[in-house]
Amino acid sequence: MPGSVTYVLWPLTLLAQVGVVVCSLRGHSFRKYLALNLYMLSSFFAAILRFSILSQYGFSSKEYFYFYYYSEALLTVCLFFGLISLYTNVLTELKAERLVHLAATLLLLATALFSYLVIRQSANKMLTHFVVEMSQNLYFVGLVLTYVLWGAIMKLRETRTRLIQLVLSTGLYFSAFAAIYALRNLYPSLHAIWGYLPPLIALALPVAWGYAFWRVPEEARLAPARLAVVPR
What is the pTM of this model? Predict the structure, then answer.
């Protein structure tokens, strides 16, 4: 991420992340959306550590490079399980929580194995290549899972407004990062342009979640006609 953009958006992102947790606590939804709140708290502390390392060593330092990508991999795993928690909320009436958690664990292991197979020929900095590859693959997996979850929402006629907004904003986040990784691989010469987008997207997610917790009551429901058009 370009240093100037990081310095400008860093305090805004921190405020938005804290706002998500505060709004969730205020609305008595912290436990219900525990995985999402834990992800926001993890992102908050990771951002503070990143800024500290950036200020001390600089944007081009290997210390910042390693910490950024290792922390990014851990945060992506946390967000992956946050998405799975949304699955359990949508499928709660089907009593499929245990099956969803098992499938998610197997999918995460399969993604890690695939990432290892992709980079196993890279003897130099293999661990670094692995965490970058796994983060990239998890964004694509999250993108696909979000579309599957949206299909389940349509099929089950889910109308909980807050839950739908959380799913949509999380899906847009996964989609945006998956697109950035794809474009970065296709057009590596434009790396300066792609560097400006992640901090903007990182700010957009807590803003969207915070709005959902602050302005959308848990009991709010969408009219079925607004969610999908059902043929007569």
Answer: 0.87
